[in-house]
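pls ignore typos typing on phone
3JN + seq
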Amino acid sequence: MKKFNTAIVGATGAVGQEFLKLIEERNFPFGELKMLASSRSAGKKINFMGKEYTVEETTEKSFDGVKFALFAGGAASKLFAPAAVKAGAVVIDNSSNFRMDPEVPLVVPEVNPQAIARHKGIIANPNCSTIIMVMALKPLYNLSKIKRVVVSTYQAVSGAGREGMDELKTQLEALARGEEVVAKVLPVAKLNKHYQIASNLIPQIDVFKENLYTKEEMKMVDETKKIMEDDALKVTATTVRVPVYRSHAESVNVEFENDVSVEEARAALEKFPGVILCDNPDEMLYPQPLETSGKDDVEVGRIRKDFSIEHGLNLWVCGDQIRKGAALNALQIAEYMIANGLVQ
Ligand code: 3JN
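k done
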């Protein structure tokens, strides 16, 4: 099988490390593999599939001969994606830097693979909460056009990176010992006010915008319309940080144009690749973040009629935001391109 030289930009972070796990697990056909990061991590060693790699500082020259440049997130793609494209690489970018650029496809391969072929060098991976939600919306949209979505998220601390996870752990330990709890990271590390997450919920993810929504909330609104290719789709979101280590959960209220029964919704979700239907109230079966952590599939359950509107359903969705919400989705884009001859 043909092999593709691959660079991981941000190889030492949580998403970068997940890329490596998935490349091995899925037998991704990489040729040469470059581990790139900022100057801070350059020189670190990474053992991967029996070989030791040295992390190199990302520069504009890092992409010679690279076919897939997988950017884990942050500002790196703003700085280096254009150079990577110039060098002939396909950039798959997990940050928000290019997501709403009309020239850049925003892709969840199970949902809108047709957008991939329109790429001009960069393909954007959506925000994790958006990916997890549209995985549940798409099979339902295929049954009836969706008019409006009201979503509330329950987002794990790992969405805020390693620091978010460390913060929850340190605080839980302090609480258990009866010591003072220190908050340094959440809701937004760079701001100078922080709140305890252990034994708490924080209804702020990222900074506020002028319209009183947070950036995370507006990402869900804007990105969902772009992925579903429906500007008329109304979406409103409330995003909340919860004291869970990994896997985001979302309560999703969907208003359809036509009637969709619970049975039809279940059947459509069950058939959809990447989705597991986990919905059996008699057996107390419903998706939970502990269950979806470390897994590839998004789980959907608690499906029931919203009897307060004419054509509505309520759902509960859980998915691992570092896997399907980030690294897995990006790698699936690369796999789709290989399988469909969209990359030479
Ligand atoms: O907080 C979460 O649970 C998800 C965070 C996502 C995130 C954090 C910092 C910057 C993003 C993202 O993927 O939307 C970005 C960004 O790229 O803008």
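The mean pLDDT is 97. Residues 73, 95-96, 127-128, 155, 159-160, 205, 219 surround 3JN (CB under 6 Å). more later
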